[in-house]
Amino acid sequence: MTAAPTSTAGESTTPSGFKVRHLRWYICAILFFATTVNYVDRQTLSNLKPHLQVVLHWSESDYGWIVFAFQIAYAGTMLAAGPIIDHLGTRLGYALAITWWSIAGMATALARGAISFGVARFFLGVGEAGNFPSAIKAVAEWFPKKERALATGIFNAGTNVGAMIAPPVVIGITLRWGWQWAFIVTGGLGSIWVVVWSLAYRTPAQHPCITPEELQYIQAVEPGESHQDEPKIPWKKILTYREARGFILGKFMTDPIWWFYIFWFPSYLNQVRGLSLEKLAYSAWIPFLVADVGSVAGGWLSGHWIKRGWTVNRARKVTMLIFALLMPAGLLIEVAPNAWMAMAFISVAMAAHQGWSANIFTLASDMFPKKDLGSVVGLGGAAGAVGGMIIAPLAGYILQWFHTYVPLFIIAGVMHPLAIVVIHRMIPKVQAVVRGELAH
Known about the structure:
Blueprint: E1 2-4, E2 17-19, H1 23-55, H2 60-88, H3 90-107, H4 114-128, H5 131-142, H6 145-177, H7 179-187, H8 189-200, H9 212-219, H10 235-238, H11 242-271, H12 277-283, H13 286-307, H14 312-326, H15 339-367, H16 370-402, H17 406-426
Helix pairs in contact: 1-3, 1-5, 1-6, 1-7, 1-8, 1-11, 2-3, 2-4, 2-16, 3-4, 3-5, 3-7, 3-8, 5-6, 5-16, 6-7, 6-12, 6-13, 6-15, 11-15, 11-16, 11-17, 13-14, 13-15, 14-15, 14-17
């Protein structure tokens, strides 16, 4: 952090005060912590599933419908979250979203049966739908195109850190004070983040701590981008763009696989591999640690190739193909000889998804202008949540009726390779959309 005079020409948008070098990476760190909190709150229930099934006498289908309640709220709100974030701005919109889901998370402590848990998770889904549209929009505001995948991979790694923190924290609190306090403590984490966010976040042109050099670096027009003052694309019209439909289909096909792993793998380790609640507390975080590596590596890899002269189209698609071809590791989980080998295969699959996710998110910012990004990401997130809505009760009934995870691991292993084919067909070339020209 350095003190710098502000009399340099062109700095009228940044008032005098301390200047912070590489400020965009500090902003990325705040996004990382928001996503971490998001997943701590989201993972509280899945880590307590084995315990709550015994205490509250849930069936597998009960749990499936509780997850469905979260997903339907998440999907429905995603349709509105993007336009709301675009309208309110990233700073206010993100703060409102995390305030909402923190209150909903704490309120889950009041639930007593499957129905009341479903209601609580529904309201959690409403708030959590604002996380990714806000974070992706913030990345687009603060990072040039060649750095967006890495920035996305870094903040998206917060999903895995949150999921890593959740087992020891949630289970530890539950064993000491009861499951209600697990929801209260994890839900309250968001209030700390909101204070930091409100104090620290502004757009680059309005931020008092940005250096002139960094502001110029962020605002430089890159090939395929335009800074013309064009009107926003109405969100319904976004669907007429083939690029948007390809992004949305990709999210619909692959997001449910992540939902399946995060909501069911602790239960799988408990029911099939015999890990107790105490063993889950110190082992269920391992796949998320490996997934963290996948998230950052996925973002770094495509950015590295772009810096070496590859086109954005080639860099994104080759990276996504590599991670898609790792997803069939999930097919080996059920035949693994022991719990630790099963966890290793789960780890590979989850890391591969996160490497994929860092790049599919970035596709939206590669193709659409910043002012429309919240809407595009919101539609993609809604599609992914709809896929999650389908797989949640399906998983519940498959497990209740057939008592096997095999069909679910088969689905999880094949969807990403199919999705990269669909994306390539729908988006032959990743580039900025031409406004006013609709793809057919």
